[in-house]
Amino acid sequence: MMDDATLLRRYAQNRAESDFAELVRPHLNFVYSAALRQVNGDAHLAQDVTPDAAFETVLWAAAGGEFENVADLLAFDANTRSRSAAVFAELPESIRNELGTPERLIALLVADDVPLGRAAVVAQIPTPTDTKVIAQIFDTDGTQKLAQFSLRADGNSWRLVVPEKVVQRYAARFQSP
């Protein structure tokens, strides 16, 4: 077994998914153990409160156009929430009234961006503030990419963290040319 530094270097140089999987595999038990503690040892429920289960739930809701459910599954830090509110405030009143909150606007845009293909969680990496989920995304046109998402624990559930750069990208869509 190679040390973490070697695995990380090999992954960075060659994009060898097997090296990356080997690097993060030791952390998976930590995530599951934390989930077990959150649900008082209920193994079946612990599977539902893992970051990969939450990630898949967000994808299913988004792909199904259920942006109200997506809004409930998103996490915003203070800067991202503020930027979302600023974008929301610039929209016509009729749209603001229909959507109701900045979170629902972002959820609608997130849902629109989700590919209708499939996704497979490749790895989870716990950090002090959240868990990084690495997923292989497959679009219906056959394209695929590796993407990283952050999920944050919120009580007994997980929420997808909305990065500020995503809100900035959405804000650019609404700016006049």
Write a structural description:
The chain is of the alpha+beta class. It has a single domain, classed as Nuclear Transport Factor 2, Chain: A (Roll), CATH 3.10.450.50. Helices cover 56% and strands 20% of the residues. The protein has nine helices and five strands; from the N terminus they run H-H-H-H-H-E-H-H-H-E-E-E-E-H. A five-stranded mixed sheet has the order 1-5-4-3-2. Helix 6 runs parallel beside helix 9. The longest helix is centred in the first third of the chain and has 22 residues. The protein is globular and about 60 Å long. The model has no long low-confidence stretch (mean pLDDT 78).
Low-confidence stretches: none
**CATH second-level architecture:** Roll
Count the DSSP helices.
9
The fraction of residues assigned to DSSP E strands is 15-25%
Percent in helix: 55-70%
Radius of gyration: 18 Å
CATH C-level: Alpha Beta
Number of domains: 1
Order of helices and strands: HHHHHEHHHEEEEH
For the residues shown, what is the average pLDDT?
A: 78
Q: Could you say which overall geometry the principal axes of the C-alpha atoms support?
A: globular
